[in-house]
Amino acid sequence: MSDKTNDITMIGIVEEAMPNTFFRVRLPDENLIIAYLSGKMRMHRIKVLIGDKVEVLIDPYGGKGRILKRL
Fold this sequence. Notes:
Layout: E1 8-18, E2 22-26, E3 32-37, H1 39-43, E4 53-58, E5 65-70
Parallel strand pairs: 3-5
Antiparallel strand pairs: 1-2, 1-4, 2-3, 4-5
């Protein structure tokens, strides 16, 4: 199981919507990352559009981020 204390969440802005519910998100430090929707957002069909502020859980190993919530 993952340790909740090591989770890094950041607020970012969606720059581009890509196929298969992937998004390009700009973080406050001007980095662009690829992020995907979390399971709860898919299950409840929450739409994410270009320009939305989102909370992103950053993968500690440098992979994709996971969009946790739309703000």
